[in-house]
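Regression check, manganese (II) ion case 201:
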Amino acid sequence: MPFSLPDLPYATDALEPYIDKMTMEIHHGKHHGAYVTNLNKALEGTEWATKSIEDILANTSKVPMAVRNNGGGHYNHSLFWNIMKAKGGGTPVGDLSSAISRDFGSFEKFKEQFSNAGLTRFGSGWAWLVKQHDKLVVCSTPNQDSPLMDIAEVKGVPILGMDVWEHAYYLKYQNRRAEYIAAFWSVINWDGVAKRFAAAR
Ligand code: MN
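Current build output:
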């Protein structure tokens, strides 16, 4: 099997009270677990089975829909677990902080734009902060699509992602997506985001 479910980098209750333990257990173990299982199944016997996940996403236009959906699901969730942490939140520092101020005007304006991208994504999808050549942009994608995909409307390297599928918040917040988004800012691992920003240069 080319892909496996990565361990969470913290306990399932580490993000309480913002993201509850049961949501994390089901989201990581069942949802992400299913993306990995179904990705491996869809790749079986194809030329893509030996490629990296980044390679597969960059060639989304050439792969079956099951690979697009489950490959995106695996990549997006692997990123998601690592841009959150216990006692997270606050604001970024250093180069990332400067780049956000340069490209959005201020951290507050970025926060508003990113929150709005998650709030206005109809149905299931993701909000993203994307490194695009020399600038940062905010966008959102439907389903499990990623800005890394060749079919993406806005392309680039995602450095921060927020899952706005109902499975990410429904047990605790029910239909109140805005409350989940407000809480998300308290669990962001800005060091993790800064690492992705530096690696994307
Ligand atoms: Mn999810």
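Comparison notes: Residues 21-43 form the longest helix (23 residues). The chain is about 45% helix and 10% strand. No diff flagged against the previous build.
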